[in-house]
Structure formats: C-alpha cells, structure tokens
Prior knowledge:
This protein is 46% helix and 17% strand. The protein contains ten helices and twelve strands. The strands form two sheets. Strands 1, 2, 3, 4, 5, 8, 9, 10, 11 and 12 form a ten-stranded parallel β-sheet that branches. A two-stranded antiparallel sheet has the order 6-7. Strand 8 (166-168), helix 6 and strand 9 (184-186) form a beta-alpha-beta unit. Helix 1 (17-30) runs parallel beside helix 10 (285-311), helix 3 crosses helix 5 and helix 7 packs parallel to helix 9.
Amino acid sequence: MTIAVGLGLMEFPFSSANSYWEWVMMCENGGVDSIWQTDRLVSEQPFLECVSAMAAIAGATKRIKFGMNVVSVGLRDPLVLAKQCATIDMLSNGRFLPGFGIGSIKAADWRATNTETKSRGKRTNEALEIISRLWNEKKVSFKGEHFNYCGATISPKPVQSQLPMWIGGSSKAAIERTVNYGTGWQAGLETPDEVSPVIKAIKTVLKSKNRHIEHDHYGAFFPFHFGSPNNKAVQKTYSFFSNQLGIDPYSRVVVGESSEIMGRINSFVAAGASKLILNPIGKNDEEIFYQTEKIISEILPLIEKNNQKRVK
C-alpha cells in the first residue's frame, strides 16, 4: 500500500491569482502528489469553482494530479459534469481524480437555489450512473425519477481507461453509493477512529456484492498547521468547526510540528486510508507558502522513506 500526500484548499486563502499560481507551482515542483479543491457555489467567503479550477490546473502543470473534494453532484447536471471531467482528463493526459458526493445539507447552496434536499441522494445516485456510463459507453439511454436521457454520447472519452470515481460521505447511504459506483472512497472531516469502521463497512458490502475497490483507494483529509494553536488562522478554523459545523476541532485539526503531522498520517494509514489530503492553515500568502514548504521539505521525505520500506 503506497501512501500519497496531496494538498487541498477549502476557501481561497491567497491575496491574488498570482499567489495562487505560485503555490500551485510549489506543489508541482516540490513533489506533492495532488491538489484538491472543495466545492462550494454559494458563500460569502471566496471559493474557487472546483471544476473550473481543475481545468486551469490541468493547463498550468505537467506532473501533479488534481481533483475535487468533492463535487456536489446533486447540484450539477450529469451530462455537463461527465463532459467536463472527460475533457479535463484528456487535456491533462490522465491526471484527473474526480471526487463526488451529495453535498453537505448545511451548505448555503441548497437554500440559495431553492433546491430540494430530501431527494438529493437518489438524484446523486442516478447522476453517478449516467456519468459513469457516459465515460464508458457509446450511447446512453436512461429513465429515472430525476433524469431521462435518450442516446446521449460524449467524445472525447477520458484518457484513463477507468476514470476514477472517488465517493465522499460516511453514512450508510454513502457506503452503498461507494460500493455501487465508486472506484475509491474519500473521507471528509472524520477522525481516524471514525474512518476505520467506514472503510471496514465498505469492504464488507463490497464482498457481499462481489465488487472490488483497490486496497489503496481509501482517502482521508485533515487541516494542519506547523506552529502554535494561538495562530489567528488556527483560531479561526477552530471557531468555524465549533460554531458553524458543530464538531470538535481539536480532534480534527492537527497543530504542531512534523511529529504531530506524521502521527496523524500514520493513524489514518492504520485505519486503512493511504491517500491523504492535507489542508494548510494560514492567514496570508506567506503562511500558506511556509506550511506548504514544510510539507515538501519535512513530510514528503518521510513518506517516501516509509513507502520504500513497504516495498521491501
């Protein structure tokens, strides 16, 4: 099982587009496995539109992989989304790692668009089937409760023979969705103790349905900060977790030095997740650059060393 570390953004933390591209190139040249963008359409805080950001990264880089963590399928048209993903994968020569989910019920996207949330799970399931079929079949006809297609086709197809379909969510329905449609599972803000039973449940259902997901296609996510918990950006993150999300920040946000960061990575690996998305916490460009450089210079060499041991 190979461990891979990517970096992910939620809201846009940079002062300008130029600073963002400087960060992207730090990741590209520094050996970071992948770049990820959280999906949020309606927000007072700046968020990049995740699919557009993926297309931009595809054109600006040559090596690094990238994906959405995760796109809210219930708010998207599956034909457009399938076409976007196939196009991005083709133009990036197969570096795209799209992640899909139903979207947080707490997100303002639903209220602002007056979109029904009760049926978002079934709508997402129908959309995922359509997207997967459009990537792999010549013509797709589909009749469901939410979508009705007749002879739909897209071209070009994705470069990857099986374009990844990482599924987010930890509910029973999300586990079933992962088994039925996914090629991988991506955790949200779950702790290692919360991730472990979800992965075990997915594997149990996979076995009962005679389906398979590669053992290293389970991912986890956590925000991190090299430094003090008294940092303003860290305190802001703690407040967001407590007041907006209603969850304990101290078990989910990792603050300290390399030992603490690696400790959390190792805990997730022990829980069964080997693909890690780390979210750098910083109040300005300089702090985000510093956090990223610490990952590149201190964490990635340790990951490489551990991977070499696993091969032996």
